[in-house]
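User: Assemble these into one structure.

Assistant: Restating your components, then the assembled model:
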Amino acid sequence: MDITILKQTAQALVAPGKGILAADESTKTIAKRLEKIGVESNPEINLAYRKMLFTTPGIEQYLSGVILYDETIRQSIDSASVPQYLAGKGIIPGIKVDKGAWLLPNFPEEKVTEGLDGLRDRLTEYKEIGAKFAKWRAVITIGEEIPTDTCIEANAEVLARYAALCQEQDIVPVVEPEVLMDADNDLERCKEVTTMTLKKVFERLSAHKVVLEGMLLKPNMVISGKKSPTQASSQEVAEATVKTFLEVVPGQVPGIVFLSGGQTPNQATENLAEINKVPGSPWQMSFSYGRALQDEALTTWAGKEENVRAAQQAFLERAKKVGESLAEYARKAIKEQVKKDKKKKVND
Ligand code: 13P
């Protein structure tokens, strides 16, 4: 394990004004997304869609990295492998390595993510073909009697084992314990479950000696469930999110890259901008969005070659909106630091 490489990659992934595109939809999920625009999924169509995204002129201004699926990391764009193509644009290639969330035996409403078997060998191969970071998604569902401690513990343990295996190969683990936003719970309940989950995750990461400086956390925001009759404002979401994370996420973690979790592109953009306005957080707070970055581009594209330019335009505009709010915050933070340093010098 080379800690310098891990730290460098982790920091590059949360460079000011930049974030990650999650384009790692599994075979089943990409089929679902394409079905919405009336297109049948197959490896060629999936690549045509993702190529439209990756070849968007100027997108590298806002994207530090892209998470790929196993199918895509083995495909090519303009005679370069996809990871080579992305690296050529200054975008860091990453890979989803989990094998999905499956029913947890004896806990009918809960899931545990699988994929540890053979992971060391798969990581060796992914590293050879250019992956510098990886993703593993655990799913925590909110319900009347759930999540159970057993579900949280099972997921936290595998997340930590995954993270340790990644670091062994100098691959930055993106640790994603996603508390789903779909239920009818209020903000407070989301805060409670997110707190419990993250506490357990960091406990297991520590037990497995994962180097916090060489990983990223990919969490949900603390937000009202989609079916809740009362919806918290962006400011409320931002304050609750930062407060929760300050309680449970160690300051050594270089970055928090939020998932969008089914928020609309505008919601995800606005909430992240507000989160970045809350003072006092030690981490870079950025994005690792799938749907919120892709939705507009996907519907504009609609599977037609003649729509590629318009779809790229929609994609670039969304990435710009999300990225610029982060960059503005970063500039302000730097200015404040410079001011503080000057004051300190005068006082010294
Ligand atoms: P969403 O932003 O669509 O939630 O996807 C992010 C992701 O990678 C989920 O694992």
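The radius of gyration is 20 Å.
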